[in-house]
Fold this sequence. Notes:
Keywords: Heme, Iron, Metal-binding, Monooxygenase, Oxidoreductase, Signal. GO terms for molecular function: metal ion binding; monooxygenase activity. With about 500 residues, this protein is an alpha+beta fold. The chain has a domain at about 130-375 and about 420-505: CATH 1.10.630.10. The protein is built from 17 helices and twelve strands. It has helices at about 1-35, 60-70, 90-95, 110-115, 130-145, 145-150, 150-170, 180-195, 205-220, 225-230, 240-270, 280-290, 300-330, 330-345, 360-370, 405-410, 455-470; strands at about 70-75, 80-85, 105, 175, 380-385, 390, 395, 400-405, 470-475, 490, 495, 500-505. Strands 1-2-8-5-3 form a five-stranded mixed beta sheet. A hairpin with a 2-residue loop joins β1 (about 70-75) and β2 (about 80-85). The longest helix has about 35 residues, at about 1-35. The chain starts with a helix and ends in a 5-residue tail after the last strand.
Amino acid sequence: MDIISGQPLFLLLCFILSCFLIFTTAKSRRSRHQVSASPPGPPRLPIIGNIHLVGKNPHRSFADLSKTYGPVMSLKLGCLNSVVIASRDAAREVLRTHDQILSGRYLNEALRSNNHHDFSVAWLHPSSPRWRMLRKVSVSQLFSPQRIEATKTLRMKKMQELVNFMSESSEREEAVDISRASFVTTLNIISNILFSVNLGSYDSKNSSVFQNLVTGVMDSIGNPDLANFFPFMRFLDLQGNCKKMTDCSEKLFQVFREFYNARIVENSSRTNEKDVSSRDFVDALVDLHQGDESELNINEIEHLLLDLFAAGTDTNASTVEWAMAELLRTPKTMTKAQDEINRVIGQNGAVQESDISELPYLQAVVKETFRLHPAAPLLLPRKAETDVEILGFLVPKNTQVLVNVWAIGRDPNEWENPNRFEPERFLGKEIDVKGKDYELTPFGAGRRICPGMPLAVKIVPLMLASLLYSFDWKLPNGAVSEDLDMDETFGLTLHKTNPLHAVPIKKRAIN
């Protein structure tokens, strides 16, 4: 009787024990699965993890490591878990397949130093109403096809001013700083779209000041910082990135405030309504700020202008400089591009935007420049909102995800002779930079694609074609193409360490 009465209890204990064993075995299997599915990576040192492997050019260091550990590679940077993506297929999963899960941003200390992450369309989360509103304002007022077409005459005027400056330098047989000249041109295009004024002058030091401020913002955000790897060190700002970000951005904010306040005064004294064709972006911002239902506050306006001003000037100018450097290193390629331009333009005196579609080799030169020298070599850092699988590897929640577009652009599995500048590789192919071809995504892709891309793909080829049509080029002081260095300085954007200087030689009369 005791045995019979104790049997249900025994069976119950057996059932509980079985469930426990099944649960722990399943958990163990999941654990083993997760371990096996974690992205491979280099061995880690105590405390610092893999920080010692980063180097002064992280995009290159990561590319070298990916050759050993694969296209989805795990790194431990102090306390920060990171995954680096280095292939087209892995990039497609990040930028398209799991775009929603990976659309958050990893925020560093430089961004937090002036609260830029709370107001920036580049850093806010796409689920945020503020992000949607700022993105909508940017696209509708600046980057829609209608707005870009409306500013075509402005771009042509600034290209003519660039050519005139180069012509004067040619007459004096002076070498020109291509970086600075390109920056002044893009600066004046952007400042006129935003404020209807020229902020740059080819003969003024003020342009260098603006260039230094913009570069300072980009470098402070992009430079590796111990405070990002060890949160307890945040208050020290050992590398000065927070101070640099605050100082540079505040000086730019002061410029923006002056224009904004002056426009309010101007509008208040105006008796008639401003002509639609003469309205600029600040007019639109004033309407959104001071309308019956205010949609923007002054902080949002300042930080939006910082985004547009910095990204719109720095990236376009550096791309033109890299393109000219590559062409000077390969004179036959430059001659081929010039021959095409001369054949299409003839003696018309100036390259028009409508001509660019008739210049496939020039377009290939631009694509090849984007491939070898993407403005943002690691794009902007993403963050996993939840656990996610990329090419079968588990990327845990809150991991920083970096897409190494610089490495993808030089992947021998995708490109023949990947380190050579060969625009011919794009002829007859439909590969583009607009976020659909994941072997070439200098502007990113998906919901996080750069909103300024439609303007950039107008400015860069137009500026390059204008320089190649009106002038032949040579290196100063008898230097030959083999002497030209291509050293890089890493930041949020990739700059040529030593600015390119070249001598323009006028080919024809300048109108």
